[in-house]
Structures are given as structure tokens and as C-alpha cells.
Amino acid sequence: MSITSFDQIQSKTIAPWLEPIWNAIDLGSLPNAVLIHGQSGIGKFQFSIELAKALLCEGSSNQAKPCNHCEACHWFSSGNHPDFIALVPETHRKLLPHGDLDVDTDSPKKAKKNLDDSDADSGDKKEKKNISIEETRSAIEGLSIGSHRGGNRVILIYPLEMLRSDAANTLLKSLEEPPSNTIFILLADRLDRVLPTIRSRCRLIAAPRPDRQTGLQWLEEQVKAIPELKTKSADVESIYDEQGGAPYAVLESLIARHHQDDKDELSISIAASRHLLQSLAQGSNIQWLDAAEKIQKAKYSVILATMQRWISDLQSVTQSGYPRFYPKHEAQMRTLAAQIRLPKLLRLWKALTLARRHENHPLATRIQLEALLSQYQQVFED
Fold it and tell me: Is the distance from CB of 286 to CB of 380 less than 8 angstroms?
């Protein structure tokens, strides 16, 4: 089996830790908008794709949906269902079925073609991380027309917090007066960054992170099905902890490593997170200037999340608890806990929380990293 993309090898069933949510959903009484929120990399997107497919399935009413046999299911799986509209930034289009869907349902392969063309024109051109107002309007304007198949129409938006303010306002108008038979499936990694007016018009569904045993067991099953990965259990556990217990993010990182793509954004972020953890473990001896230099090219939000998890674990250990995110570093944390000045640690936590509010629009990333890491060093000093 040749591994060419994450979409080709990911599990096609609902992840075990998300099954209770799936079983609780009544497709016949779903509201016009649901907002699925939870940590990045735990399978929310794959869950939402399966939900969209089930809502569009045309199997008999007594069949479990999606049936995967009707014409609608086949269209959906091929990435050509006319009543499925996906609003995602360029950086996430590869996660869609076959990666060839666009908001323009008349030409579903347009997005991929344009992306390929732009890559050919300039290898250094960065993919857009926001959903543009033009894409949103293009999707919303067509909602006044009835669905192509006469059934449901599904609009998937991910990640919701990446909507620009003007695009979010356009979406809000549709949520206030939703078209008939139209269901919005909205996904957010950070619920706190979603407009309250949008949250209030949706049914909120919290997607849980699996416990460590369940997450690692699921990963082991995925890895065994792909012998080309040749990954040791110890490596999987290490990456699992570094990714904050997000199984799908771990699987994607293992595939990126298999391809030896050290320029991939995920690979860069994983390497940076690993170096950051090694630096943080040094406590007052951290070489914060050197650390900031080596991690500055990684995704800023990933670096902040890694640091925030580490500080959270330190707070827990300092107060006689146990590390939640990085259990393998417990011995180091207990050594550091004896040197920590708790008021300074809490101030650093507040600084990290404020930094995360602007993580997608950082100014002078390296300078901000230096400031945070310098403040971390001071946590251990009088």
C-alpha cells in the first residue's frame, strides 16, 4: 500500500471516543445549525464529514445512515454531491473528500485546480488561512434556490474561528433566517474565539479528547494497518504526548515523517514543539534566546499551545497533582516544582492566555517568543 495522503488512510468510521455523541444525534430533529467544538486533531472534522454524508443519504428510513450504497452517498464519496458546500481555507482543503470540493458547487474541482496552478506558478506562495468574504457570499447567495436533490443541503464550515469578521457577519444573517432544509455544520477548535452571536444560534456539541489508553489503542490499530510507517510504540507515545493527546494529529504527523517532508508545516511544528519542551525542562537554565531562534518558524499557535500545556502541568505538579499533557516529563516537573515561584507562574499563564487571543495574527513572532521564554526563566528566580 502506497501512502499518498492522510485522507487515504484515515479511519472511515466514527472514532470510539466520539461514538457517544454520534449515537445521541437524531438526524430527523437536527436544528439548522450545530457547532462542534473541541481540541484540534481529535477527529472533529472526520466526524462532521460523516454527519454531512448521513444528512444527505437517501437510503430508506429504516437504514442506518449513511448507508454508503445510495446514489447520494456515492456522489458524496466522490466529492461531487451538489448539495454539500464546504467553506474551508486553502490550508484545509486537502481534508475534504478527495480534496476537490469548493464552495462553487457547479465546479467542485475548481479549488484544487486553482491551488495546483498557484503552486506551479510559485512554490513559495503561502496558502490562505482565512475564509474570504467572497467565498462566503458565493455559498450563501445560492441558498435561496432549492436543493438540487430535493432533500437536505449541508454547509460545512471549518475552522469557524478562521472566518474573517465580514464573512462571519454574512454567515450570521443566514443563521438568523435559515433557509429551509439547510443545515450548517460549524466546527471550531477554539470556542472562545467564535462570535457569541453565532454561538447563540447553534446547538453546541462538545467533542471530547480521548483518554490516553483509548487514544493510543486507536493509533496502534491505524499504524498496524499501514506497515509502511514502520513506527515504534515508544515514538507514537512520545508524539502523542507532544501533540497534547490528539490522535488524528499524531497520525498525520507520522505520515508527514514517513514522507520525510521536513518543510511541511506540521513537521516544522512537531520539531519545534519537541525542542521547546527540551528547553522548558531546563527551568532557570533555559537558553531562551537560542530557543526562540530555533522555534520561530513554526506555527505560532502550536508553540503557544505547547507552552500552555507545559505550564498547566507545572501548575498541577506544583500543587501536588499530576501532569495531564506530558506525563513522561513528570520527574523533571517535580524537580522544577521545588524552584517555582507560583505567583510568577500564574502571571505567565495569564500572558500566554492573552497571547493566544492573537495567535493567528502575531506581530514580530520571535520578539514575542523571546518575551514569553524570558518570563518563563524568571518563574524560577526570586
Answer: no
